[in-house]
Structures are given as structure tokens and as C-alpha cells.
Amino acid sequence: MSSRIKSGHLTRRQFVAAGAMGTAAIAAACKRSEQGNWEFLSAEEARTLGAICDQIVPADEFPSASRAGVLTYIDGQLVRHYRRHQDAYRTGLAQAQSMSRRQFGNELASLSPSRQLEIVSGLAQQDRPFFELVRNHTMEGYYGTPRHGGNRDAVSWRMLGLPEPPLLGRAQYDLRKGSPS
Amino acid sequence: MNRVNAVVIGAGAAGGIVAKELAVAGLSVVLLERGKWYTAYDCRKDDLRNQRTTLLGNAFGPEDEGNPRVWLDAKGVPHTALPSEGVYQNNAACVGGGTLSYGAQAWRYLPQDFRMRSTYGAPPGSSLEDWPISYDDLEPFYEKAEYEIGVSGDYSGTPFHGPRKRPLPMPPLPPGREFSILEPAARRLGLHPFHIPMARNSVPYNGRGPCMRCRWCCGFACEVDAKNGSQNTVIPIALNTGNCELRTECMAKEILTDDHGRVRGVAYFDAKGRLQQQLSDIVVVSGCATESARLLLNSKSRLFPAGLGNRHDQVGRNLQGHLYTGAVGYFDFETYDDVGPGASIAITDYNHGTPGLCGGGMLANEFIRLPIHMIDRLPPGTPNWGLGHKQAMRHWHKRSIVIMGPTQQIPTADARVTLDPAVTDKWGLPVVRISGNVHPATFEVSDMQAKRAEAWLKEAGAIGTSLMSYRPDLVSAGQHQAGTCRMGNDPQSSVVNRNCQLHDVDNVFVIDSSVHVTNGGFNPVLTIMAIAYYASGGLVRNWKGTGFRS
To answer: Which ipTM was obtained for this model?
Structure first.
């Protein structure tokens, strides 16, 4: 990515700075999870789900699913539009946890990233419907609107290079060049 | 409640126009709408909850709670469907209906689309038929819809359209990047690309401003009110006459008949769930193909034990819509310009005239992509999760183009709406049951359309493609649903006559996509609107005080 500052885009450095500003929000969310103060998930379930989500959208130079608020999205929807999936989550997360304990003697969230990937890949094989459910919900939380708690600070949209906030009222003009496109 | 001249059921594309035409002509009208009157604020760019991407529900109705339907799978096993699920075949439930949040492609059907049986012959097992009216009959009303609702675009690039007396009232929006990439490619293939006609202001029109070209278009209500539907055109005119009363959150229960077999009004549940009666001289059913059929079937009486207009078991049959097929193209340069509405260029070269195929369809580029639309449209072989998926999103989101289109479906009598014998909605009314499929000849065409889309993308420089081609087991009616109260001259094989009047009862009209004999290879809304103008014109012309000459 070019380091030239473009209106509507963030350079890498600006992005890191913006991330630092968002740390307070993330810290608040972490605190909430430590207290087990989720709407549906238990603290342990949240840790397990976070580990699965972070394999589905892992961190690279852009944040992972859980750092982008995907857990807040899924937890919130499990008591709203996705109430019908509560049982699937309860059972599926317990299964992932028991796979992890059986295979590596520890809970999923405590394993090394490579072992987490092994468990999550195994889950994708053994319980395809549950894995697909989590996969789709993770994608929604990561790439959907920030309104429901996911895609925090529109991080995925920035990653894709979409102007955020969007430029409205510009009609057919490209503001970066200041001339009709 | 006071008796009125007309009750119109459903304030969508057709019902809004009928209400306006009747009210302007001086008839007293009650317009019933089961949904609410929403604004753009009720959706607010929610890309997980709008009328097109319904992962978290429909923004503009119906709600998932209390509005189930049932569909039959290929083995005949019934399943319950929620309004936010595709198999439900939802359109919308709100003032404006689908036109509040649609993409607003405003196509005229082609002359051949009204004469499908004569053009191709009916494939065995199909119910392919000609319309009792022609393109020429509808032409003045297409024009009226284009000018009253407001359509922008430019047909001059193609010879493949019906005769027209006036150009569109507004020029097309300036071309975006995809248009610039696809236009020369289509010409190199010998095709005739042109600007999609859109019920969207490109310049100030009808007292409202032009499109601001944002990313949140198809499926969303327009924040600057530049998208033209019945809610911001004809319905306000109807209300301004003082002759029309709009009652929202009112669900029609049944159409009431008297002992002489004529209709005397409508029973409905009001916003507080109380059962009400509205007596009237005539009743116009404009609830969209699935719900209009349901209301007729739910209107059972001594003289009409199988439902109103259903003496020959025709109500609900010939359900059709469109199945979209096409292709995604992947490019080694940026194709995305973040300028809405995105959909801009189309070809109609393939709608008719391919030897061995029964019809065809329009092909156009897709509405502007939101990231959520891209997660399952990455190149073949991309992992569907993990780092590979994330990086592919990053790489391809701005380097891809989707071309697809609605293939004209070959109807069958077995693709139909009936009443489910067990499931009822929150008002206790039997719900829609959907079963059957369109004729398999349709899929030969839709598969071919996908390959044609792919060829266009390759000519435009795509370095890779993936086909979007499906053969589902259930009729794909959805937002383009049509056909369930077929228009025809023969009462044995159709439900309404050429004036949209029930064969069985002369003071009931069905005016919406239900009357479409076939559904064209285009988005159907402008045809729905043209028929609404055409049928209300006939109704007003024959109106005689508290009745009419038929």
C-alpha cells in the first residue's frame, strides 16, 4: 500500500494509530468477557467461540474476528434474531471443548494457534452444520455493518479499501482528484 | 364504517397506481396495506437486515414472528419457512411494497414476451400461453408509468426493444467504471449494450432530487428519495385528492360475497387486531402473486366453496418468477469505483431468437457489491475460511464484476400457491403453501445465459470466472413472483379476463403480477405498473355511479 495520504483511505501508520484509539473499546469488551457478562454465552463458551472465530478470520496486519467484535455480534444475535440457534451453539461449543481436552488436555482457547487450527479443522470435518453456522455468522460479524457490534470501527471495510465513513452526496465526482471521473 | 366505491388491497406497485387512478377519477377509495409506512431511517444501511440481504430479517416486512409459510420439497414433504428465508418467496409488506426498496430496473417486456406460445409452441407439460393483450395494447401505459413514476435510461443503443412513441423522461446516470469496461467488450462480441432503464432520478424530477450514487441501493430505501416507487409518487397523489384513505397494518381476512354471488366488501384485521368490515361497490386485489392468490382462496362462501374466482381450480397455479443465473469475472485491475447504483449496462440481444431454446433473458451487471455479498463469490478453489479467505476478500473485492439476469420461466400448472391445511399466521388465517417447479426447458436457457455472461466477462478481460448456474427443485418466485391469477379469454383456464376482472364475479379485480400469463426475461415492475394503469383506465371508463358497465 502506498504511503501517500489519500482522502477516505488510511495509510498503514494511520491505521495502527486508529487501532490504538480503539483500544479502550476493546479493553472494555475484554473486561466484559472476563466477567462472563455476555447476553447468552458463558465466559468459557465465549473463550471457545473466540478461538474458533479467530481461525475463521485470523489476524494478519488486520485484526482477527474476535478483535473486530464478532463475539459481540454473535452473542447479541443469539438472544435476538438467531435465538433459534441457541441449542446448536450450546452443543457445538461443548463438543469443540471436549475435542480439545481429549486431544490436547486443555481448553481450546489456551492452545497454541497451530493446535487451535487442528481442532477447528477437525470440527469442520466432524460437525459440518455447526461449523458452517459459526463460519457464516463470523463472516457476517466481520464483513457486515458495525451497527450490530461486529466489524468494529468498520475495520473490514477499511481493509477492503472502501471509504469509511462513506462519501455521500458526491454524485459522480471523485473527491480524491477533485474532478469528474 | 361508510360504504365506499372501492377497496384496494395492497399498497404496492399496482395497488398504489390503482388507488391514485380511481381517486383522481372521483371514486371513494380505501387502500388497505398490511405493513407500515417506512422511511429510509428504518433500515439505515443495515447490510444484514434489508429487503435483499435478510440474514437478520426483512427491514420492510413481513416480520419473522407470526407470518410463516409452508413449502413442499421434491419428495412432497412440507417444511415451514420464515419470511427472511429464500424459500418463503417474500416480496415486501409495506407502503410502496417492493418499490420502496427495489433496485428499480424499469423494463418494458418485448412484444414476443406477450406471445410466447405462438412464438415457441408450448413445451409438453408446460402451461405456456399467449397473453390476451399485446405489447401494443400496453404501450401507452408503459409510457404513462415511465413519465408518472419517473424512469431514467437510454434505449438508443439497442434495436431489441418494442416500438415506443417517446424517449424516457430522464437521461441515464453517467457511466461508472464497470460500464466503461463492459461496453466495448459487448460491442466487440457484436452485442448491443445500453443503459438500464431505472425508476431512479438521474436529474431532479417530480419535485425530488437525483441519485447521490451511494453503495446502499438495491434492498434499501433511498435516503435522498431519488428512487421512485408508489410510496413517493402515486400514493401521495391519491391521498391528496381527499378521496383515498390509506389504512396501514390492516390485514385482509376475506372478500365478502352476498347471496347473489356479488362481492360486498372486505373483512380485515386492523392495526390493533380487531376484525373490521369495509363495504364497497368493488374490490381490487393487489397483494402480489402469492398473497393475492391466498386471499382469493381464503374467501370461501356458500357460492364459492373453493374460494373466490376458483371455480375451475385455476387460482394459485402457474406460479413463476425468475431464477438469476450468470457469472462472476475476476480481473487483474480494479473494477470497483464505489459509485452506486452499480447496475448500469444491459443487453437484450439474448431475450429471443436462439434456435432450440424457448426464450431467453436480459443480462446486466449486478448492483454495487457490499462486502457481505462477496464472501461466497470468490474464485473457485479459494478456501471458504481462514487466512486464505481473508486475503482473497482483500484481493478480489475490488477486482470483480458480476453479470447476471432473469431468465424467462416456462410456467407449469403444478407450480402453485395453495392454502396450507395446518399452519396459520398470527391472525389465524391459513398460510401460503408453495409447491412445484417451472418447466425444465427453463433451465436449458438459464444455463446458457450463465455461459453468455461468462463470455462477456472474458471478452472484457476477466482472468478467471465462476459460473452462477442452478437448477433448484422449487419454483423460484421471490420478489418477481407472478402468474397465479392468469389473465385469459377462457374461464376454464384463466382467472381474470383481459380487463383484470374475475371471470366469476364482475365486481372483483385482480390487478398485480398475478395476472401475468408469462413473466418476460426482465424485472417485472414496469409491466405491473403498466397493467395497473391499463386496468384502472378500463375500470374508470366503465364506471357508472355505484357500479360499472362490463
So the answer is: 0.94
Q: Which of B56, B85, B177, B377 to mutate to test the interface with A (most CBs of A within 10 A)?
A: B56
| Secondary-structure percent of chain A, ordered helix, strand, coil, rounded to 5 | 65, 0, 35
Domain count, chain A: 1
Q: Tell me the CB-side half-sphere exposure of residue B131, using CA atoms within 13 A.
A: 27
The C-alpha atoms of residue B346 and residue B193 are separated, in whole angstroms, by: 6
B99-121 per-position pLDDT tens digit: 999 999 999 999 999 999 999 99
The Cα of B251 is separated from the nearest Cα of chain A by a number of Å equal to 24
Domain membership of residue A177 (yes or no) is no
Domain boundaries, chain B: 4-548
C-alpha torsion angle, residues A121, A123, A125, A127 (rounded to 10): -160
Q: What does the DSSP 8-state code read for residue B82?
A: -
SS3 A47: helix
Q: Which residue of A has its CA nearest to B386?
A: A56
Cβ contact A129:A69 at 8 Å: no
Residue B292 neighbours by CB under 8 Å, 6+ apart: B9, B10, B285, B286, B484, B485, B510, B512, B514
Give CATH superfamily name and number for B4-548: FAD/NAD(P)-binding domain (3.50.50.60)
Domain, as residue range, for A20: 12-160
